[in-house]
Amino acid sequence: MAAKKYELIVIGGGPGGYVAAIRAAQNGLKTAVIEKANLGGVCLNWGCIPSKVLLHAAELFHDISSAQQFGIILDSKPKWDTEKLREKKDTVVKQLVGGVKMLLEKNKVDIISGLARFESENSITVTDEEKNRGIINFDRAIVATGASPISIPGMEIDRKKVITSKEALEVEDIPAKFGVVGGSFIGCEMAEVYNALGSEVTIIEMLPSLMPLADEEISSTIGRAMKKKKVTLKLSTKVKEAKVSDKGVELTVENMNGETETLKFDKVLSAIGMKPNSNNLGLEKIGVVMDEKGFIKVNNRMETSVSNIFAIGDVVGGALLAHKASHEGLVAADVAAGIPSAVDFEHVPYAVFTEPEISAVGLTEQQAKEKGIKYKVGKFPFRALGKAIGMAKIDGFVKVIADEQTDDLLGMHIIGPRASDLIGEAVAVMEFGGASEDIASLIHIHPTLTEAIGEAALNVYKKAIHIIN
Question: In angstroms, rounded to a whole number, what is the distance separating the alpha carbons of residues 277 and 315?
Fold first, then answer.
């Protein structure tokens, strides 16, 4: 490779990296993105997008299975064609990866394949698949290398019997018994998929509830929903030992009372957390400061300890979310171009695409208590909403948390149909410093699911119309 020079390079072509590269080019910077594998990163190729294809298929399967209540008569029970399912998933991924490549090219961003390593604050080496090495010089750089799954000691990931979400999304076969270690967002979503596919699913979670970072009522509600689907929950339980063989995986687990048992699975998904992809980049060589876990330290302008080096996405820690990474990419690219910008980490929403869906933004009740904030709560159940009843999707609720004195909206938590689409209203209101009364005063279309948000806000003042306050 001949030496090249850019005003900005982006290392990593995931949802943070490619967005940053496009914005940098829009800002007039000569830009290149360096990607060692596929454009779109884990999210597009082996995470967010393919998992949502499978989760949508699971939802369709459930809806078809219960279609008789709407007068739809099926001649036989629905069944899976996993080859067709994989084909659909791969088609969606291929289309979106092609879209990312086209957007980069149309914005005149150079795409460079290979592994990058810093040699100085203004130069990197890139090694391609043929081990050819070249030098790239730059004025500024954005590190967007993401994160990778971690293993439990003694239960190392072999990607055959002990797998990550990447292998789980391939759906090469449907295991009779599928174990999920970790009741995280990823763990619950994959449990949902394999439960719909027909596996006998068990979730093993060390803490007392699924999704322990979520609002407590959300956690307990999704736990009940999982049990209703015959998913076995082993909460307050940790893995003590794992034995992997050609036949499957034997896990010895221990509960909070010290009682042990052995569970046998055909496959086990490890979903216990992620580690930053910050090794082997030469960051220490140029003085980029990281924390004890290897996450790169940044400020709200996404600047590292080295003035011309930025970092975004999972490699900087915090909430490991694709949309957070993309937003950080926009901020970093603007700051790199001399445009004032900063990230507001208080209003980052998240969603979990289980059935029912989950979404939230802002403080939970627990967090408000820990901060010593006096608050009020308004709730509205979907079972009292005409649209949800008509859809036969009545599980869940909307919860609004507001400051007791100022009425400022502190948080919103939703579990129910299309929760991921509904949360945007709360994000906008919070970003503009709004209150629960602002939401209550908005006119929500009837009949829609958004009415539940308005009713929950009204319930803060015990003035909801369609429930007894």
Answer: 6
Q: What is the maximum span of the chain, computed from C-alpha positions, in angstroms?
A: 72
Ranges assigned E (strand) in 90-247: 110-113, 115-120, 123-127, 133-143, 147-149, 162-163, 177-181, 200-204, 232-234, 237-245
**Secondary-structure class of domain 356-459 per CATH:** alpha beta
**309-332 confidence digits (pLDDT tens):** 999 999 999 999 999 999 999 999
Q: Is 446 a catalytic residue?
A: yes
Instruction: Output the CA–CA distances (angstroms, integers) from residue 373 to 214, 412, 432, 458, in the order listed.
Output: 18, 16, 20, 21
Using one digit for the tens of pLDDT, what is the confidence trace for 368-417? 999 999 999 999 999 999 999 999 999 999 999 999 999 999 999 999 99
Tokens coding 343: 């990230």
**C-alpha gyration radius of the chain:** 24
Instruction: Determine the pLDDT at residue 2.
Output: 56
The CATH topology of domain 162-272 is: FAD/NAD(P)-binding domain (3.50.50)
Q: Which CATH class is domain 4-148+275-345?
A: alpha beta
Asked if domains 4-148+275-345 and 162-272 share a fold, the reply is yes
How far apart are alpha carbons 342 and 330 in whole angstroms? 9
Residue-wise DSSP of 411-450: EEEEEETTHHHHTHHHHHHHHTT-BHHHHHHSPPPTTSTT
Token pair listed for 61: 């399967």
- Cα separation of 414 and 454, whole Å? 13
**What pairs with residue 113 in β-bridges?**
35
Edge-first strand listing for the sheet containing 397-403: 350-352, 357-362, 409-416, 397-403, 375-381
| DSSP-assigned states of every residue in 85-98 | HHHHHHHHHHHHHH
Q: Which of 62, 327, 413, 446 is catalytic?
A: 446
Tell me the domain boundaries of the chain: 4-148+275-345, 162-272, 356-459
Task: Give the mean pLDDT of the chain.
Answer: 95
pLDDT digits (tens, 9 = 90+) for 130-188: 888 899 999 999 999 999 999 888 888 999 999 999 999 998 889 999 999 999 999 99
